[in-house]
């Protein structure tokens, strides 16, 4: 019974994940509080790569919510790449994606270091937590897996951004995510890596009416808008957290 429920919840998360921000008017909408777009931790390798003129190689490791079926060019990793290329003209920015479908943090962690080395990654954005929450993975096991993954990425020479799960009102009524979100913050603090708080950002968009994430009628159109906003917000987060000065580099935010 638990296996069946988990499958249903994963499918629900994937579809509402296919809700994951705005097309051409991203600066007018998708407002994000400034405190969610920076961190006390810094992305020193990103900063060094940009100041050296690139390349800036970013690897996104995530679940299905990192993609839009049949429209990958509209998903947030592609939007992140486009936004960074615009904000950092003259810097070669490459964003690649490694999907870890229906895998827990423990499933993914052992391969991260080698994956980062193979991709020559400057930065790895590790989006995780939803599968663990749906399967009620022991919270200590989740925290240990996160720690293992982050440590291996750092040893591989990559900066790390942890990204928590997306916000979905429907999923939240069935799955407790708070402990997983909190423990991700604990690991991030211990390993001095930033957390891109996608959950809170999307929750605020839902509360403000920017997006109706509870509506059963979502579709690809909403998914594209949400992903566009996420890509833009994440690009700002990367630049701010790397402490990159656009004036010095002749770039723009």
Automatic annotation (TrEMBL):
Keyword Signal listed: yes
Signal peptide annotation: 1-23
Pfam families, per the entry: NonGDSL (PF25182)
Keyword Signal: yes
UniProt keyword list: Signal
UniProt GO MF annotations: hydrolase activity, acting on ester bonds
Protein name, UniProt field: Lipolytic enzyme
Organism: Nitrobacter vulgaris
Organism lineage: Bacteria, Pseudomonadati, Pseudomonadota, Alphaproteobacteria, Hyphomicrobiales
């Amino acid at each position: 019974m638990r296996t069946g429920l988990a499958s249903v919840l994963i499918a629900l998360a994937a579809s509402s994940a296919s809700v994951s921000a705005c097309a051409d008017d991203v600066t007018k909408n998708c407002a994000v509080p400034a405190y969610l777009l920076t961190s006390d931790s810094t992305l020193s390798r990103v900063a060094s790569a940009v100041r050296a003129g690139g390349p800036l190689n970013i690897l996104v490791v995530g679940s299905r919510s990192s993609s839009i079926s049949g429209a990958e060019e509209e998903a947030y990793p592609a939007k992140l790449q486009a936004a960074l290329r615009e904000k950092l003209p003259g810097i070669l920015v490459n964003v690649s994606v490694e999907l870890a479908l229906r895998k827990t943090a423990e499933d993914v962690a052992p391969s991260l270091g080698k994956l980062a080395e193979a991709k020559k990654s400057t930065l790895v954005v590790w989006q995780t937590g939803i599968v663990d929450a749906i399967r009620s993975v022991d919270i200590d096991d989740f925290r240990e897996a996160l720690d293992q993954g982050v440590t291996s990425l750092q040893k591989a020479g990559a900066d790390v951004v942890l990204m928590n799960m997306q916000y979905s009102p429907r999923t939240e009524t069935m799955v407790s995510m708070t402990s997983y979100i909190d423990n991700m913050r604990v690991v991030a603090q211990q390993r001095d890596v930033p957390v891109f708080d996608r959950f809170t950002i999307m929750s605020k968009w839902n509360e403000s009416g920017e997006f109706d994430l509870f509506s059963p009628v979502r579709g690809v159109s909403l998914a594209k808008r949400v992903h566009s906003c996420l890509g833009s917000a994440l690009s700002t987060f990367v630049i701010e957290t790397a402490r990159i000065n656009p004036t010095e580099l002749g770039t723009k935010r």
